[in-house]
Inverse folding.
């Protein structure tokens, strides 16, 4: 198990899995979504920065990342290990804003390319020159990796000075986590004043979870209390199940200093020896590498299902939102149909016109009133549906997505669209009436507009408009009247369906644009199981 | 005195302990002994007092005991009128301490025992209390009125007053000893209380919880001593909180060490007496209450200070953080201790300093462990710390502006401690911390409530919106159509009435021919559901949307609900109203000139007939041939008839328009009235309620700014 050869099959499945992970998206603001997004990014970073390059090139130098809280003395430690000031140390926090990677000159080619940490821009600083002012202007300092070379670093080892894991600058924190995920060896630095802090312990637990090769350094321990603090810290580690982790203690020395001097070699000698041993002893090196790599592979077993679960939750939430829209529009559709059949359109204005027709009201006016009333009915149905959707969505946390929240001022445009549809319906109705009248071979043909008004009244008036049916039959004959009525009725049904459908689609459009699909869940799990088989 | 005397002892105990230790520098155990012996001698002293030489102004005091307080008080003030006011102060001060001690003490002594030793024992310490209070305040002449300067003078000069003070300590006036908020703050608190009360039905309790808590805490704090300032020392693990605490107290009270986290529960230390209720409030048990090492000048400087040493807030021990969070809500001021290693920790800034940015005035930020920094880097770190605090939004109290105080200090070497001591002394002497803290709390609560009270948009129902609503309702009942129909019907009737008889004849014939079909008799039956339901629904929805636009969500919801409630039954009511308000059905009224017109038309027809007959007569030869007159008559009739008809139609136009408009207006008004009563008024009431609350909220916020 402890061998690490290049295995193309495994790499293939791994990159397939990586693509799946990269494709997973969590746009709906559910309770677990930010966490899932962070997990996804972290996993992606770990795959890109560490696992894939490591499995592809097992011979690459080991990367030891020095991480810890602000002011723990990470930079001082790195400087002391190297024996030269490569990383700025100072009293102001946070000190290290740009991560610094130190390696042997021979190993430089491993890191100058984009093999590991492809997301970071490389800045190569020539030897013997302090690295100030060499950052490309305008570049985000957090997304830059400075590479230093030093002869004193053993070949096959690279040290990376990471920013603070609990920095006030959020990007620094994220970057620090990302860098740690890229490490073969995690060097966790803490101090006598800090060893009980909560944040580093989270990181230690993470390291344990990933089964990474971990070393802890207890820095800045005043001489008087070395033994006691060390004992305390050891007890805490044991309690956390990390008792077997190699532990190094660096005393607080005047040189260590907030001024950024170098610690004497003796202070860091044990750590250095340990690191050199890990690098130069082939067996130990294999074990270090394999342990971390397989730790990450193993961690996929729990992390992938978690992502898949989050994806499923997203889909479920999207489904709930969609069904709320569908339910609202369906019920409003049914309601508006029932009202149409009940003759609700022939009320108010239209009813008054109808009562006055034909003595005090022209057919055109009656048609106008009916069309207006129909448009009002449809608009009412649509707004009622929207209101129901709003109510239902208010209970859904997922509806808080900014894409869903910002709605076009739709009432006006909906009114416009419905008005347009109703006018078109009216025109078609008039054409039908025209056709029907022209087919009649009577000497006195009835006015097509009157026929249209009567048929509209029959369709929209329900029981109330029985006399309109009589008038129509009289003008067109029973047969013609029935035919016209059926055609117009079908037309009305079509237009009704069309209007409701358009409005529903309009309402669903932003949700569809988010593109929350059920597939990612299955794909993630599938990629994981393929990987498991491949191992 | 050795510091580790328990606060739970009464005043008397502490004082006697003090006396004892001043004599002997005794340890805690010895002090306990001293206390006992002192008490014993006190009893004998009391016996002496009652037996023969009572001090002037307290006759019968000793034996009378607790029940006699009020009596004793009035008697004394009566006797010593000129010094009444100053005595009052002295009495108040002494009495406060006594009262709070008695109530706060856990081991209350039996009344007799409690009272008996008082006169002789008090002679020394009580005078001293007043004296010290005065000394502490003497630096601030503006405080003279309220505090001990006068009292001190009196004390120095007038033994009688002093004795009165000694005697009066029992009759404590409750109100004066407790904390008093100034006017603006009080009105803001009242406004907040009112606000919470007004919005209870609209907002869920979770939203109001923070405001309620602030009110409760403000009320609780108000009942407690206003002469004390509770200051907590908070900070990360290992930053030296306990060290600083001990340095300030002058004795190792709190355990310090390298083991992290060191302090696991808060420890209180009170510089003067009477703070027990305050410490009770923090939930600190008696065994964790301490007294500082009292040197006279230290006590004078920090009198009224209650210092709390908190556990850390950033260690892996979650319970510590919970304790810190709990206590931080209750204290008057906080000293944040940071060290060069941890001053930029995200936990400190993001979890504590940023949310508490409004509390800058009751905040000290101490950069501890400066001894670990070489050279001038302490200044650099301090500047960086200031920058971070500034980024957190904390106002820094530089150049005399109100804000947080930032100080470098080394608790280990003592560098900077005197400065802190002085600042604390000044801070405590001002006695404003509690009120400022409450004020900042109110600010924070108000800011938290902002989304549910204010949106920054204009709210209310505009006149146009009301008119639009009425217009929509009128549409729903079909007012326009009804008016037009009425107008046309009137006009039609007028035409029919004033038309030429020939036209009438023709119409009648037409009617007869068409009667079976094609003729739509004007239906007079009442329709059910004559009102367009969809239009009513839409009108209500629109108006409620307009009314709730710009309102915070809960209030918008309330407005919407009010509108929906009002709209229930609105359609039915409109149906009914429409039938009532509609013009009486059947034939429209006939104006007076119609008969005249009919008469004229008849005359015209008559003329035609006469002319025709005449002509016929001539043709037949019955009459003398005279072509001119009959033709003239006929032409007059033939032309005159339509002319009259036309004239009538012109004349009828005006009245018919009026008639139609009247019909429309009646419907319109009825609909509008119904809508106003059922929907607009409830909505307006709801808006008014919101505006009231908004004003109340403005009151809470505004005064704070001013």
């Amino acid at each position: 198990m402890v061998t690490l050869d290049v295995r193309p099959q495994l790499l293939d499945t791994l990159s397939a899995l990586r693509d799946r992970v990269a494709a997973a998206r969590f746009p709906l603001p559910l309770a677990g979504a930010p966490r899932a997004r962070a997990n996804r990014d972290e996993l992606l970073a770990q795959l890109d920065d560490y696992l894939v390059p490591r499995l592809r090139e097992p011979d690459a130098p080991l990367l030891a990342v020095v991480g810890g809280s602000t002011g723990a003395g990470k930079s001082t430690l790195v400087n002391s290990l190297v024996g030269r000031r490569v990383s700025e140390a100072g009293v102001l926090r946070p000190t290290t804003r740009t991560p610094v990677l130190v390696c042997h000159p021979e190993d430089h080619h491993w890191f100058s390319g984009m093999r590991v940490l492809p997301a970071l821009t490389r800045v190569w600083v020539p030897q013997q020159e302090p690295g100030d002012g060499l950052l490309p202007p305008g570049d985000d300092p957090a997304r830059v990796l400075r590479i230093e070379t030093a002869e004193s670093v053993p070949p096959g080892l690279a040290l990376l000075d990471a920013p603070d894991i609990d920095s006030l600058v959020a990007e620094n924190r994220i970057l620090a986590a990302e860098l740690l995920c890229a490490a073969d060896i995690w060097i966790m630095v803490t101090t006598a004043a800090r060893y009980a802090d909560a944040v580093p312990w989270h990181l230690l637990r993470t390291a344990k979870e990933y089964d990474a090769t971990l070393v802890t350094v207890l820095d800045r321990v005043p001489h008087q209390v070395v033994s006691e603090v060390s004992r305390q810290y050891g007890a805490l580690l044991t309690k956390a199940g990390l008792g077997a982790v190699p532990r190094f203690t660096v005393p607080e020395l005047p040189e260590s200093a907030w001024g950024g001097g170098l610690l004497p070699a003796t202070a860091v000698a044990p750590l250095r020896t340990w690191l050199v041993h890990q690098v130069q002893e082939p067996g130990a090196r294999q074990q270090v590498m394999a342990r971390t790599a397989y730790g990450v592979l193993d961690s996929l077993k729990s992390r992938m299902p978690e992502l898949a679960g989050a994806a499923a939750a997203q889909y479920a939430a999207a489904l709930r939102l969609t069904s709320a829209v569908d339910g609202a529009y369906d019920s409003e559709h049914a309601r508006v149909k029932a009202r149409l059949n009940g003759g609700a359109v022939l009320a108010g204005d239209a009813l008054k016109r109808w009562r006055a027709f034909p003595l005090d009201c022209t057919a055109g006016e009656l048609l106008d009133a009916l069309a207006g009333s129909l448009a009002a009915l449809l608009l009412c149905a649509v707004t009622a549906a929207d209101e129901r959707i709003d109510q239902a969505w208010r209970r859904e946390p997922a509806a808080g997505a900014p894409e869903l929240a910002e709605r076009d001022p739709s009432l006006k445009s909906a009114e416009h669209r419905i008005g347009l549809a109703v006018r078109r319906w009216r025109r078609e109705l008039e054409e039908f009436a025209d056709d029907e009248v022209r087919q009649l071979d009577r000497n006195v043909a009835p006015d097509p507009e009157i026929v249209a008004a009567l048929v509209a009244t029959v369709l929209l008036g329900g029981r109330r408009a029985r006399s309109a049916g009589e008038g129509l039959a009289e003008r067109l004959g029973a047969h013609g009247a029935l035919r016209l009525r059926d055609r117009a009725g079908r037309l009305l049904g079509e237009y009704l369906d069309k209007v409701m459908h358009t409005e529903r689609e309009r309402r669903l459009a932003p949700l569809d644009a988010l593109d929350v699909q059920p597939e990612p869940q299955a794909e993630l799990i599938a990629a994981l199981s393929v990987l498991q088989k491949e191992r | 005195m050795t510091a580790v005397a328990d606060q739970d002892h009464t005043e008397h105990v502490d004082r006697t302990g003090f006396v004892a230790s001043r004599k002997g520098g005794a340890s805690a155990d010895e002090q306990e002994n001293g206390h006992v012996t002192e008490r014993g001698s006190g009893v004998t002293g009391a016996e002496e007092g009652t037996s023969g030489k009572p001090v002037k102004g307290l006759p019968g005091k000793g034996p009378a005991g607790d029940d006699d307080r009020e009596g004793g008080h009035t008697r004394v003030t009566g006797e010593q009128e000129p010094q009444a006011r100053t005595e009052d102060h002295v009495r108040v001060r002494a009495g406060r301490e006594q009262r709070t001690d008695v109530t706060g003490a856990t081991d209350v002594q039996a009344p007799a025992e409690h009272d008996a030793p008082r006169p002789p024992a008090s002679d020394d310490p009580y005078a001293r209390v007043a004296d010290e209070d005065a000394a502490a305040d003497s630096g601030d002449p503006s405080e003279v009125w309220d505090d001990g300067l006068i009292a001190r003078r009196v004390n120095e000069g007038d033994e009688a007053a002093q004795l009165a003070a000694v005697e009066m300590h029992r009759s404590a006036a409750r109100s004066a000893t407790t904390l008093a908020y100034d006017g603006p703050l009080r009105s803001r608190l009242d406004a907040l209380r009112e606000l919470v009360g007004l919005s209870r039905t609209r907002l869920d309790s979770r939203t109001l919880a923070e405001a309620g808590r602030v009110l409760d805490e403000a009320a609780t704090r108000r009942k407690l001593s206003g002469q004390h300032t509770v200051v907590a020392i908070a900070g990360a693990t290992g930053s030296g909180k306990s060290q600083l605490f001990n340095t300030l107290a002058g004795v190792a009270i709190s355990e310090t060490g390298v083991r992290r986290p060191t302090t696991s529960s808060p420890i209180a230390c009170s510089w003067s007496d009477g703070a027990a209720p305050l410490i009770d409030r923090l939930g600190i048990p008696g065994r964790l209450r301490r007294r500082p090492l009292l040197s006279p000048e230290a006590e004078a400087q920090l009198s009224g200070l209650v210092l709390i040493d908190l556990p850390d807030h950033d260690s892996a021990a979650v319970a510590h953080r919970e304790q810190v969070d709990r206590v931080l809500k209750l204290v008057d001021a906080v000293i944040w201790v940071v060290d060069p290693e941890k001053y930029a920790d995200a936990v400190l800034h993001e979890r504590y300093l940023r949310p508490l940015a409004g509390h800058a005035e009751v905040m000290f930020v101490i950069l501890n462990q400066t001894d670990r920094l070489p050279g001038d880097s302490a200044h650099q770190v301090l500047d960086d710390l200031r920058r971070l605090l500034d980024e957190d939004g904390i106002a820094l109290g530089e150049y005399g502006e109100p804000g947080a105080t930032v100080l470098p200090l080394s608790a280990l070497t003592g560098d900077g401690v005197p400065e802190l001591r002085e600042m604390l002394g000044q801070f405590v002497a001002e006695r404003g911390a509690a009120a400022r803290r409450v004020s900042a709390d109110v600010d924070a609560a108000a800011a938290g409530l902002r989304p549910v009270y204010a949106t920054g948009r204009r709210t209310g129902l505009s006149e146009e919106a009301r008119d639009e609503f009425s217009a929509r309702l009128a549409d729903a009942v079909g007012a326009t159509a009804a008016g037009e129909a009425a107008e046309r019907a009137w006009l039609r009737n007028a035409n029919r009435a004033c038309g030429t008889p020939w036209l009438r004849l023709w119409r009648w014939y037409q009617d007869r021919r068409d009667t079976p079909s094609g003729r739509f008799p004007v239906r007079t039956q009442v329709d059910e559901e004559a009102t367009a339901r969809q239009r009513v629904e839409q009108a209500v929805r629109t108006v409620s949307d307009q009314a709730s636009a710009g309102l915070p969500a809960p209030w918008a919801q309330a407005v919407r609900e009010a509108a929906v409630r009002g709209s229930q039954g609105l359609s039915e009511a409109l149906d009914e109203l429409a039938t009532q308000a509609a013009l009486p059905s059947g034939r429209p009224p006939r104006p007076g000139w119609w008969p005249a017109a009919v008469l004229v038309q008849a005359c015209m027809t008559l003329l035609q007939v006469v002319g025709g007959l005449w002509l016929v007569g001539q043709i037949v030869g019955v009459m003398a041939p005279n072509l001119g007159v009959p033709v003239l008559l006929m032409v007059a009739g033939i032309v005159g008839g339509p002319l009259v008809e036309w004239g009538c139609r012109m004349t009828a136009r005006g009245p018919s328009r009026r008639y139609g408009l009247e019909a429309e207006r009646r419907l319109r008004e009825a609909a509008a009235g119904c809508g106003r009563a059922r929907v607009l008024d409830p909505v307006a009431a709801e808006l008014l309620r919101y505006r009231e609350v908004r004003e109340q909220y403005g009151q809470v916020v505004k005064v704070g700014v001013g």
About this structure: Confidence is low (pLDDT under 50) at residues 126-139 of chain A.
